[in-house]
Write a sequence for this structure.
């Protein structure tokens, strides 16, 4: 059986830690050393809300001088659904998965272990203050930055000095840095398509013998609601409350986008220029396709020009898991090659 492959993108970030002599990789290795009290994964879990959602560093290792790890996010009690692709049916039935019905050796032990669906997982590697991230649509550099500040800060390992944040900055080429130095930002525009998400009409069975989840949902009966961030912005700026409003179809083909522009007319003060430059820096976690910056010389820099990224082939095992042995080697090679883009 031929090995499966996925084609993904690696992103480079430069960790900025002002006033600290230790690098990010040194702090991570210290936090997870053999004498650390954070060896058990339960001690590395950052609670995200009262519902039990969490994220944490799962497995980790030192590979050729690179700290290589997984950051995992879990949505407590999440119900995962799948399509039953029966081509003889008029529509594909939507089936939910109940983890309690899946046989597991863990459930046969004297202690019943809790099981949860993974919400998302990213892989990252760190050499010094150079960071490579294989992110997903829901777990990105923003979440990794937030977790590292929690994990290494006073709330957990207490290695990071108080009021000293870790900032995962994008890095740019010398040519692009020269353009921005000669002509500061004048206008910043951020925008993205308006997104909807499906709402599945799932009915839960109360049958104690099966504890099964059943649904009569089919493709035609699925409704769509606005992404919560989009709904909040529309309400704030236009006074229209569309939160929870159901649409019969997705808005993917509606060609709608929500955009916001910050700019100054003709000239601005030193404080005004500082503000717009800081906003430009704060865009580091956005999708590169979602923003652009216009400079004083009237030229435009697209988000993708401010990001160091490259393709990577992710090899999968026969069971469908990521082959981490190949991934960590390829990530190490790529990170060493791109580290010279650091600011």
């Amino acid at each position: 059986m031929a090995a499966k492959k996925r084609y993904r993108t690696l992103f480079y970030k430069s960790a900025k830690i002002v006033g600290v002599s230790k690098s990010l990789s040194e702090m991570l290795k210290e936090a997870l050393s053999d004498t650390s009290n954070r060896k058990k994964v339960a001690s590395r879990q950052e609670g995200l809300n009262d519902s039990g959602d969490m994220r944490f560093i799962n497995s980790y290792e030192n590979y050729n001088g690179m700290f290589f790890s997984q950051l995992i996010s879990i949505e407590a009690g999440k119900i995962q659904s799948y399509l039953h692709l029966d081509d003889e049916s008029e529509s594909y039935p939507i089936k939910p998965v109940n983890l309690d019905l899946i046989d597991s050796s863990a459930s046969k032990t004297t202690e019943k272990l809790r099981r949860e669906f993974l919400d998302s997982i990213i892989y990252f590697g760190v050499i010094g203050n150079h960071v490579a991230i294989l992110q997903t649509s829901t777990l990105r550099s923003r979440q990794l930055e937030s977790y590292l500040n929690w994990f290494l800060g006073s709330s957990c390992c207490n290695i990071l000095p108080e009021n000293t944040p870790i900032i995962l900055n994008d890095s740019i080429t010398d040519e692009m840095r020269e353009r921005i130095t000669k002509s500061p930002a004048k206008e910043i525009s951020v925008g993205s398509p308006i997104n909807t998400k499906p709402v599945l009409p799932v009915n839960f069975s109360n049958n104690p013998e099966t504890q099964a989840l059943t649904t009569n949902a089919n493709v035609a009966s699925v409704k769509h609601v606005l992404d919560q961030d989009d709904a909040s912005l529309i309400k704030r700026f236009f006074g229209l409350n569309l939160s929870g409003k159901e649409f019969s179809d997705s808005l993917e083909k509606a060609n709608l986008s929500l955009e916001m522009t910050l700019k100054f007319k003709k000239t601005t003060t030193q404080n005004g220029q500082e503000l717009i430059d800081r906003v430009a820096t704060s865009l580091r976690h956005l999708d590169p396709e979602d923003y652009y910056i216009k400079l004083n010389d009237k030229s435009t820099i697209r988000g993708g020009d401010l990001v160091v990224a490259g393709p990577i082939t992710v090899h999968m095992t026969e069971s469908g898991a990521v082959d981490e042995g190949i991934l960590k080697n390829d990530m190490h090679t790529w990170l060493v090659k791109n580290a010279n883009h650091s600011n």
Notes: The radius of gyration is 23 Å. Helices lie at 24-31, 141-152, 174-182, 228-238, 270-282, 324-338. The mean pLDDT is 75. Residues 101 and 326 are 33 Å apart (CA to CA).
